[in-house]
Design brief:
mainly alpha, two-stranded antiparallel ribbon
Length: 263
């Protein structure tokens, strides 16, 4: 402590390992998962197989191989399962999302359940939106979690690895290593109008290494509502799918109003 005070007095900021730098930082969190979705599903399967859905939590913990409900490995797995909307609260009942994954009644139900579980977590949904078509940088995610949730570097790193592992398990990582929304009839979640808009990084034209075209689509007859894009002259089918997925996240989709007069 004295060394840290001396450092400040000398005009030198404390190093990250010094106590003052970690003041107020949390070493655990319930806001985002500390275990990935695969581990959460393993817990869900145990609860289902041992018919523990309506049992008191102490019994659920023991049935799953843990001493008490406050056992850190059990508690964090349970918290993750609830964040992914796989288990209800206060007991451990399986949700419709969990049942769709474990007992799919249609071809795309399992993938849809995974997509819904990932996108149910606001922080995960925001990161997916920001990285569609890009590679995930675990260190960047860790820094983001640390700032947003006030976590220590160690805790943020655990959460970041859980995020990356979860989206990989859920099929959000394409063969080329970039983030892509899983296909197969999955309905894309629409953005909450009250949620903050995530600004995408600007791409300067001089950085482009190919010809760029500008196209405008007018959405109404008065040509007041429009979408303008700058894009390469050609795109591949995979790139087109990424563009469609990206638009699905960026635009707030409203249901058609039958009473509204056409423009």
């Amino acid at each position: 402590m004295n060394d840290a005070k001396t450092s400040v007095a000398n005009g030198r900021k404390p190093k990250p390992e010094e106590p003052e730098a970690a003041a107020g930082k949390k070493d655990s969190t319930n806001a985002i998962p500390m275990f990935d979705i695969e581990e959460a599903l393993k817990l869900v399967v145990k609860i289902r197989d041992k018919a523990l859905e309506t049992a008191p939590l102490p019994q659920v913990a023991k049935g799953c191989g843990y001493a008490t409900p406050t056992s850190t490995p059990f508690y964090r797995r349970l918290a993750a399962a609830r964040l992914f909307k796989l288990l209800a609260s206060p007991q451990a009942e399986l949700t419709s999302t969990a049942l769709d994954y474990l007992k799919p009644d249609r071809e795309d139900a399992k993938q849809a359940a995974l997509t819904q579980a990932i996108m149910a977590i606001t922080a995960y949904a925001d990161l997916v939106q920001r990285h569609v078509g890009k590679r995930i940088n675990t260190e960047f995610v860790s820094h983001s979690f640390s700032r947003t949730f006030g976590l220590t570097d160690s805790c943020a790193g655990v959460c970041a690895r859980a995020f990356v592992s979860s989206i990989r398990f859920a099929g959000f990582i394409s063969p080329d290593g970039t983030v892509a929304v899983p296909s197969g009839g999955v309905a894309l979640p629409t953005r909450n109008p009250s949620a903050p808009v995530v600004q995408q990084p600007k791409i300067e034209e001089e950085e482009a290494d190919e010809e760029i075209q500008t196209q405008t689509l007018y959405l109404d007859s008065k040509r007041k509502r429009r979408i303008t894009i700058k894009a390469p002259l050609t795109v591949t089918k995979d790139e087109l799918e990424r563009i469609r997925a990206w638009l699905g996240f960026q635009l707030i989709v409203e249901e058609p109003n039958a009473s509204a007069a056409p423009e």
